[in-house]
Amino acid sequence: MKPIDLKTWPRAQHYHFFKSFDKPQFNITTQLDCSSLYRFAKANKYSFTLCYLYCLLQAVNRYAPMRYRIKDGQPYEVDKVTASTVFLKDDETFRFTPLDAKENFEQFCAYASTQKELYLEQSLLNEKLELRETHIAQVYVSILPWFNFSSFSHAATKTNECSGIPKFVFGQYQHNTGLMPLNVEVHHALLDGIHVAQFLTTLKQAILELAN
Predict the structure, then answer these.
(1) Which tens digits make up the pLDDT trace of 5-23?
(2) Whole-angstrom distance, CA of residue 149 vs CA of residue 30
(3) Which residues, including other chains, have CB under 8 Å from residue 157's CB and lie 6 or more apart?
(4) How far is 112 from 87, CA to CA, in rounded Å?
(5) Are 4 and 71 in contact (CB under 8 A)?
(6) Can you tell me the distance from the alpha carbon of 163 to that of 70, in angstroms, rounded to the nearest whole number?
(7) Number of DSSP helices (H) and strands (E) in the chain, helices first
(8) C-alpha angle 150-152-153 in degrees, rounded to nearest 5
(9) Between 35-44 and 193-211, two packed helices, what is the crossing angle to 10 degrees?
(10) H-helix or E-strand containing 35?
(11) What digits encode the pLDDT tens for the residues 122-147?
């Protein structure tokens, strides 16, 4: 990762202003058009979930502000991020599964299936999770395919609140509209609303690229 120069960064004043807030995060919930991606998944018998997770990782790694983090009071840009994703076991408990971006979708599908199988067999709290917990080069991703929603509130530790790790929550795909709720939470010292909007544009482009 590389430090962001506060002497030249246009948002330096905003960074200093927001980073000391008791709750410096803000989040939005939007309706993401996934109709083309859903048709692509069904036509090719791919996992729809892996389709949008792949697109999310592509977008996060393309859009630099989503890779901004805070460490020891200094803003940094990390080179590449992992998605700490939640998957459900048969007993209806979840496990955290790390997913890295891959060069293409076929590689990602094979890799993600292996990762999911491996981590679903582990205990929730383990040594690997403890090592990843303080790793700032990641984003948190939850999947709630059982219902639609228009807002979301996150649980968080003080450590993760301060580091600026973004959080994403995908909801239920709506077949009648082709829309799916997506909640995005970011640290206001690092990003503003315009950056979330630009990221969503990047995500939509990644979706179009895969679906087409």
Answers:
(1) 999 999 999 999 999 899 9
(2) 9
(3) none
(4) 11
(5) no
(6) 5
(7) 7, 9
(8) 160
(9) 30
(10) helix 35-44
(11) 998 876 665 666 789 999 999 999 99
